[in-house]
Amino acid sequence: MKSLREKNNKSILKKYKKVNKSKILIIYTGGTIGMITDYESGSLKPFDFNHIEQEVPELKKIPYQLDTLFFKNPIDSSNMNHEIWVKTARLIEERYNDYDGFVILHGSDTMAYSASALSFMLQNLDKPVIFTGSQLPIGVIRTDGKENLVTAIEIAGAKKNGKPIVPEVAIYFEYKLYRGNRTTKLNAEHFEAFTSFNYPILANAGINIDYNYSKILRPSSAPLKVHYNFDINVGILTLFPGISKKYIEHFFAMPELKGVVLQTFGSGNAPTERWFISILKEAISKGITILNITQCKKGEVIQGRYETSKELAKIGIIGGKDLTLESAITKMMMILAEYSSPETIAKELVKSYCGEIKEE
Questions:
Q1: Which residue numbers in the chain have pLDDT < 70?
Q2: Which domains can be identified in the chain, with CATH numbers?
Q3: Which pLDDT score, from 0 to 100, does residue 50 have?
Q4: 213-294-360 Cα angle (round to 5)
Q5: Would you state the torsion angle of the CA atoms of residues 144, 146, 151, 154, taken in this order, to the nearest 10 degrees?
Q6: Distance of CA 182 to CAs 69, 278, 350, 357, Å?
Q7: What is the torsional sign of CA 145, 147, 150, 156?
């Protein structure tokens, strides 16, 4: 079996088996799941994906054609950025017609950000793109990586009446399948690392995989369209009791700032001091988009429910409903790159692209 190097020499394609069933492409970007112990030094190092079947012999029993594409230089989750999202989306687009589904192996710390970004980038998706990873390296005896990988592959290739069951970007972790842009990493110590506070799980994997069909997106009939542009001149401002005027002034004085995700209290509440409202109003007058989401893990922003949020709506702050932080910031990056009109930007931010936000 031969390996093929990408032209940019940053990723390698390996083919495993040929059967007349689903064809799945596994893309390894980096992360704990691809690590094994170097027994000489005792430290962790990326393993050679040319020999993935040695680490996960269960793959030999999966009745799909499995090909792997892996970054020559794996990306640590903490170093994830929009350029890697673009690279990953391009790999999918280039091979979109060759595969029935895709599994992306990724570090768990920023997986929810990447899954959110890819969900917005891959418009009109009609095939599964399943993110997974692990809390323990795949080369460790008690690893959760093997089950996560095997089941993510099974979901990526699952069909009903000849069509993919899950034609959307999702995260599979510890027996549960979540909509990618509804997911947040909750725990750094337990195998159940993720949750989806405001949307039901898409599937639960037990003896059988029980799909929540009514909550899964319907496949698009339009051709795949990939958005590659991001505007990273954005920021996140989290409110806290006692936040100072100087702090907020410095925040909005950042050069080239175009968009802010404002994390408020409760259902979208914020201080009512005149200086606070004035700073926000001035920022909006300069063309800065401000999107209001709640710090609460569960619930949504309803601007105007209380007096402390009515003023925000009056000055032009956009209510972000039940968007997650990960979804809000990645969606804003894409929207700001696509549109310049404040009215259009506001409309697009609260529009549901792929189930990321509560629809009216």
A1: 1-20, 38-39, 42-45, 48-51
A2: 3-226 (3.40.50.1170), 234-349 (3.40.50.40)
A3: 67
A4: 45
A5: 170
A6: 26, 33, 14, 8
A7: negative
Cα gap 136→32, rounded to integer Å: 6
Strand 289-294 versus strand 318-319 pairing type: parallel
Q: Give CA–CA dist 42/220, Å, rounded.
A: 48
Secondary structure (3-state) at 71: strand
Of 29, 32, 68, 110, the active-site residue reads 32
Q: CA 78 to CA 51: how far, in whole Å?
A: 26
Entry pTM: 0.91
Q: Is 32 a catalytic residue?
A: yes
Q: DSSP code of 42? A: -
What are the CA-CA distances from residue 194 to residues 136, 165, 174, 180 (Å)? Answer: 15, 22, 9, 10
Question: In whole angstroms, what is the distance from residue 158 CA to residue 93 CA?
Answer: 20
H-type alpha helices, 198-273:
245-252
pLDDT at 135: 85
The CA distance from 85 to 159, in Å, is 27
pLDDT in tens, 217-231: 998 889 999 999 999
d(CA 321, CA 303): 9
Residue 70 pairs in a beta bridge with: 12, 28
CA 63 – CA 225 distance, rounded (Å) = 30
Q: Which one, of 228, 238, 258, lies nearest residue 117 by Cα? A: 228
Of 260, 347, 275, nearest to 311 by C-alpha is 275
Polymer length in residues for the chain: 360
- Token pair 């890697």: residue: 84
CA 12 to each of CA 9, 17, 28, 138, 321: distance values in angstroms, whole numbers, following the listed order: 8, 16, 10, 20, 41
How far does Cα 68 stand from its chain's mean position? 21
